[in-house]
Amino acid sequence: MTVLATRTRATTGAALLLPRRRARQDAGLLLGTALLLAGALLALLAAPRLLDRTADEALRTAVAHAGADAGVTLRGASPSDAAPPGAPFDELVQQARWIDAEVDLMLPATAVGRSAPYRTVLDGRSAFADGGPDGVVLATRLVTVSTPSDPADPVRWVAGRVPEAADPGTPEDPRPPTVQVGLHVDAARELGVDPTLAPVRLRIGTRTSYQTVDVTGLYEAVDPQDPHWARVPELLGPVATPTSEETPLLVGLYVVPDAVSDMARVMGTGRLPGSALALPDVDRITTADVPSLRRDVVSFLTTEKGASSGLPAVLDAFAAHLGAARAQAALVLAGLGATAACCLVLAAALLVERRRTHLAGERARGASLASVALRGAVESLPLAALAAAVAWTAVTVWLPRAAAGTWLPVTVTLVAAAAPAVLAARAAGAAWAGRRVPADRRERARLAGLQAARRLLVELVAVAVAVLALVSLRGRGLVPATGASADPLLTSTPFLLAVAASFAVVRVAPAVVRAVGRWTTRTRGLAGPLAATRAQRAATSLLPLVSVTVAVALMVLCGVLVQNVRDGQQVAADRLVGADVRVDGALESDRAAAALDALRAAPGVTAVATGAQLTERTIGRDLDLAATVLVVDAPELARVRQAVGLPVDPRLDALRVPGGLGPDDLVPVLVDPDLLPRLGRTQDLLLQVYTRHVDTEVVGTTALTPDSGAPPVDARAAGASVTGDDGVAVVDAATLAPVAEKMPPVTRAWVAGPGAAQAVADAGLADLPGVTVTTRDGWYEQWSRAPIPGALTALLLAAVGALALLAVVALALVVVATSGERGRTLSTLRTLGLDARTARWATLGELAPLVVGGLLGGAVIGLALPVLVGDALGLAWVTAAPGSVPVEPVLWPVLLAAATLAVALLVAVLVEQAVRRREDLGEVLRVGAR
């Protein structure tokens, strides 16, 4: 037999027999280790897939909330341009077909042609069925709709007959024909129109010129929920007109595609004005489709004249929102995986400790370290593979969609498989390695110095890596810029900091324990000195300390993130709404002005302020600077913000000049702090309002920010204050009015007070066309229940519970692993009269450095890390708060971690005491402690 064969046989001999026997002896510990590994892998594999599934729902919700803004629109040419050959509606229909061909994942594109609103009289009488004022009281619009890829009729005719094309008549007849149209059943009921027996004639036109149309049938929408109807709401019933007081209602008159030529003749044009629109198919879109969909839309927008879409902005905001949530989830999962790996190593160490005598015997009988490691691997590898297979199968069956980033579960599995073999070989090697100590004192000192230097070098390297990871996290940010997975180095930052903190605790703890030990020698009883003596070893055990520190750090970090996400969403609501209720839209009409006046006198309303926003206004003299100008009711806005507890600019109410400006007075203005130093002066600054400029002076700075109107309930809200201008300027509307050539129309209003929401609802502002009402509490409630923020909060809270459980497991494993040696000492002391109470305090004191050191180190990391990295965590995209989101430390996660460790330590001590109580002291006196 060759040497190689002999060594191979010696290494692999009994490789299956011994592990099988030992597995039966330690079946409980092995089963617990397998369950721990399977549970950790379930969490690490399922969490990303659950987040991805939630992301699909969130994407669909975001696109649905965007409405028509997320559609792809292709506008037709101007009606004044030369008409192309063919029917007047063919160009729009062809544009709809082109959108269908070029952009995927969209609903069938719909072409819409419509006229301007006409004043309308119904048979020379009031248009209302119940009477009402005589004369023109109704506005109508001729509308035709066609979906080329879906030839089905979008309406269902329920009364009368289907409209038809008019008789072409004499070709030389210049008079336009009478157009036959359909009317929605709701509009017909409102107007008292019944074409069942005969068509009902309407006169449409201006004050001096009218045409006639015949309502021949009534219809209802086949699918009223079809999003394309949002473009032509007048076809589903009467709607309020935006500004007209003379014609408060607008009704759509549906022209069938066969009669579009009649419609064009009535309008006096060779081509119908309108556009083609395709909306995203929200039922088909997934997060995997976002890159290709965005690429198709951007390509279409750049190649087609007249094309527009807000879908790229929606997708970009969603991608940033999802990237921030994924990055924070990866940070938490990395810490959870590291904590689970530490617990698995502790379990392997406990297994080796139970077999230390057998391993020493094997080594004494000539077993090689390779054979010892092989027998350990034969036992641990199948166990780890089985646990991993069970976890992967369960997750795949439950969540079949694959998720990227499996390096963390693989790493934890490899740790669980390799730790028993490595620790077994290490224990066997140390059992008979021997230790030679030089007789020369100087040589011993030199060797001790070398060992201390090696240890210091390892510690410095660990600290350096942790600091580099922290600096990299602060500089690069946790959220990847390219949409890829988060950098493993960045997500491992809490673990690396915990390792560095554990090294620091190990360095400091012995001195602290010695100081406490000197104090305990002056106390009565044996518990203090005994605990201080045994605590020396526990204070320098690195792996248990790292396990507890990582668990506590991640518990505190998750708690801080949960609290700051919730607080950040409230900050977002405050910044976006700016009051208890915000109203956006066309507020210049008499009805809107009357409603606002009623609000000011309504009970429960503290203050009402209105404003307008102008972008790309020049500011300064001979400076290439542009500002966003906020024209507001300054004193009223100050009262609104003060009433709701928002910060108020110190000089905001001073923008209103009592009695108006004098001949030589300048308009006072506030500018943001970033713009002020770039202006170079504060007096005699030119500010553009429209085409003319006014002379202004800067009287202070402002924290007010621009916005894009009504705050969206999606991630686009995080970029609502971005305008592309160089800064913000705030002026008072009443002060500006006398010196400006014209004032911007009022487009927003802020209402404060305990009864603001009810007062706005009673005023009917939400019923005005083009007006959106947003309440601060309503926006917060809706966004806090959004899919991704809700899923991230649930993940963080679940991680807090899982980490608390792992901390308990780690502490229990440490107590069990050290119970043998501690039990022998306590059993011997019991024979000398040691009572159970003193034994309990001795055990608590022995484990106190581990618990206190892990708690302090983990709490410092968990509280300091979010504050140090700040915006690098991407909280602004998770909370949708414009600007920077302040990170505030909170105390309750620290208290929760302390309570968890205290309860775990108390339970472990009581259980150990109960076990020791059953020991026979007579047996201990006869054969000694075992």
Fold and architecture overview:
It is a single chain. This protein is an alpha+beta fold and 930 residues long. Among the domains are: 72-279, no CATH class; 453-579 and 776-930, no CATH class; 606-752, no CATH class. 53% of the residues lie in helices and 13% in strands. It has 27 helices and 21 strands. Strands 1, 2, 3, 4, 5, 6, 7, 8, 9, 10, 11 and 12 form a twelve-stranded mixed β-sheet that branches. Strands 17-18-16-19-15-14-20-13-21 form a nine-stranded mixed β-sheet. A hairpin with a 4-residue loop joins strand 7 and strand 8 (210-221). Helix 12 (441-476) packs across helix 14. The radius of gyration is 38 Å and the shape is elongated. It is a multi-pass membrane protein. Keywords: Cell membrane, Membrane, Transmembrane, Transmembrane helix.
Write the layout of secondary structure elements.
Elements: H1 3-12, H2 17-25, H3 27-66, E1 72-75, H4 90-102, E2 110-114, E3 118-122, E4 138-146, E5 155-160, E6 179-184, H5 185-191, E7 200-205, E8 210-221, E9 239-240, E10 249-254, H6 260-267, E11 274-278, H7 290-303, E12 307-309, H8 311-354, H9 356-364, H10 369-398, H11 407-431, H12 441-476, H13 488-491, H14 493-520, H15 527-539, H16 542-577, E13 581-584, H17 590-600, E14 607-618, E15 626-632, H18 634-643, E16 667-671, H19 676-679, E17 685-688, E18 693-701, E19 727-732, H20 733-736, E20 748-752, H21 756-763, E21 772-775, H22 776-784, H23 787-831, H24 836-869, H25 875-879, H26 892-917, H27 921-927
Parallel strand pairs: 4-10, 6-8, 15-19, 16-18
Antiparallel strand pairs: 1-11, 1-12, 2-4, 2-11, 3-4, 3-7, 5-8, 7-8, 9-10, 13-20, 13-21, 14-15, 14-20, 16-19, 17-18
Helix pairs in contact: 2-10, 3-8, 3-10, 3-11, 3-23, 7-8, 8-11, 8-16, 8-23, 9-11, 10-11, 12-14, 14-15, 14-16, 14-24, 15-24, 16-22, 16-23, 16-24, 16-26, 17-21, 23-24, 23-26, 24-26
Main location: membrane
Domain ABC3 transporter permease C-terminal: 800-909
Subcellular location: Cell membrane
